Amino acid sequence: MICVGIDIGTQSLKAVVVDGQRVLGQSSLSYSMRAPKPGWAEQDPALWEKALSVAVPSALAEAGVDKGAVRSMCIAGQLDGCVAVDDNCQVLHPCLLWMDRRADSLLPSLSEIEMREFHQRTGLVLDASHMAAKIRWLHNELGREGLRFHQPSSYLLERLCGEFVYDHALASTTMLYNLTSRGYDDELLARFAVDPVSLPRIAGANSVAGLLSESGARLCGLASGTPIAVGTGDDFATALGAGITEPGPMLCVLGTAEVVAAVSSQPLLDGDALVETHGYLEKQYFIENPGWLSGGALVWLRGLLQIASDKELDAMAATAPIGCEGLVFLPALSGAMAPEWQARARGCFYGLTSAHGRGHMARAVLEGCAFAMRDVRDRLVSMGLSADPIISVGGGAHSSLWAQMRSDLTQTEVHRDDQAENCALGAALLAQAAAQPGESLSQLAAQFPRQRLAAQPNPGNQAQYQEAYLR
Asked: Which of 24, 233, 338, 339 is most buried, judged by most C-beta within 10 A?
């Protein structure tokens, strides 16, 4: 069965064509975001549409597949973006991206008791990265009635098939969803002054949202009438693409942001709110820290130090010793997410001396992100979740140095996934499940072959990493 999966990323849109057991073709198109003020981050949704119109036909061409052979498609996209549209799905403001902090001042003031109740209902941290706060800001900015609000994947879905819908996992990131009742919460809607009519309806990620319209077909290059699954967010689709559908391994996504997560069969809550709890596929739960700039920090450092590639950065970092002779990097370029959430925190190099060079700085950034990962892993384990092995995916998973660093730091095997496009693959698996009602997502994911390189922990490095981590 031929299916197409789409990943709307922060830096590019990716498309894959699969037949259920292998990727036949793939393509991507890069685009940019804007940061008009410190703490702001936005993107024009027209960039996603342009990329879609290029990436899908290119992936089909590489696969040697005619558009009429595609049985279904599905879109997964970056979490926590917010797109304001009118009744005709015309964009009224650039998308506020997940890292955008402009709504910080609009968060409601909650007492300690109210904060605990909020956490019990939503499983979330009260934070302006989430959609409800961004809706408030857009209402204030646009000052008009009749607004509707999308996340990136649901926006593109409506453009393709005319349906205003997303899945339970995406809804659970909004601060407007009740984990227990599995739907929008009236009290939360009232607190954020959000009309439920302005939000997408909620359906299963692998259910059929609708059929590709004539205009949607022109936009993506597939045949009109092709079924489209509801889809989900990139964190959740990435886990599915990596084959993580049951409790056991820990997922570490090394993309622009670093997402650290585990699957749970119970809606466990972290009382200290380092990790959040979301709905997941087939009534599981996804417990995650949604991430800090990790791969994004490497991009920043490469520009700062004029390093040509990640491979060159790795080689430079390898010249410095474990612990960087006292140099510490705090990975908070867009606020801190570990060891606790601090929106106003900012990154820094701490402990710089004249003895430190470019290699120390390169290694310190790699170590700083790894230390944040350990903060989250330790919390997951303390909640009774397994985090063994660590499945590393995304662009940063290509680094053997980074994988070995994380293995030595946690004394856990780190498996580097060879599938570069796990999010798009996860979307394709949802498309396949939508075309085959009753088929288990776990079975579909297990049928997809994977090859992984494993980094084994070196006990001889444990003490040095422990000292650097505690510092």
From this structure: 233
Cα–Cα distance measured from residue 212 to residue 216, given in angstroms and rounded to the nearest whole number = 6
DSSP letter (8 states) at residue 272 = T
User: 333 φ, ψ to 5°?
Assistant: -70, -20
Helix orientation angle between 358-382 and 400-410, rounded to the nearest 10 degrees = 50
The bridge status of strand 227-229 relative to strand 208-211 is: antiparallel
Kindly report the number of other CB atoms within 10 A of residue 65's CB atom.
17
**Percent of residues, the chain, with pLDDT higher than 90:** 84
Which residues, including other chains, have CB under 8 Å from residue 328's CB and lie 6 or more apart? Answer: 349, 350, 351, 364, 367, 368, 468, 471
Instruction: Dump pLDDT digits (tens) for 60-83.
Output: 999 999 999 999 999 999 999 999
- Scanning the structure block, which residue is given the tokens 């796990």? 422
Return the number of other C-beta atoms located less than 10 Å from residue 23's C-beta. 20
Q: Which residues, listed in sequence order, are joined to residue 178 by a DSSP beta bridge?
A: 183
Instruction: Map tokens 């934070």 to a residue.
Output: 127
The 10s digit of each residue's pLDDT in 196-206 is 999 999 999 99
Angle between the N-to-C axes of helices 295-305 and 358-382, in degrees from 0 to 180, rounded to the nearest 10 = 170
**The tokens of 163 are what?**
């349906």
C-beta of residue 8 within 8 angstroms of C-beta of residue 156? yes
Residue 420 pLDDT class (50, 70, 90 cuts):
low
Q: Which residue has the tokens 């849109």?
A: 13
Residue-wise pLDDT for 128-140, tens only, equals: 999 999 999 999 9
Label the pairing between strands 148-150 and 83-85: antiparallel
The whole-model pTM stands at 0.90
First-residue to last-residue Cα distance in the chain: 53
Contact between 267 and 279 under an 8 Å Cβ cutoff? The reply is no
In this prediction, residue 37 carries a pLDDT of 92
Omega of the bond leading into 267 within 30 degrees of 0 (cis): no
In the block, which residue shows the tokens 């996992």?
169
Contacts of residue 217, Cβ cutoff 8 Å, sequence gap at least 6: 223, 224, 226
Q: For residue 217, which of 203, 229, 209, 227 has the smallest C-alpha distance?
A: 227
216-237: buried (b, 16+ CB within 10 Å) or exposed (e) per residue?
bbebbbbeeebbbbbbbbbbbb
**In contact, 226 and 211? CB cutoff 8 Å:** yes
* Angle, CA of 137, 139 and 145, to the nearest 5°: 175
User: Any idea which residue has 């954020």 for tokens?
Assistant: 192
Half-sphere CA count of 216, side-chain side, radius 13 A: 21
Hey, what are 333's tokens? 């370029």
Rounded CA-CA distance 130/135 in Å is 9
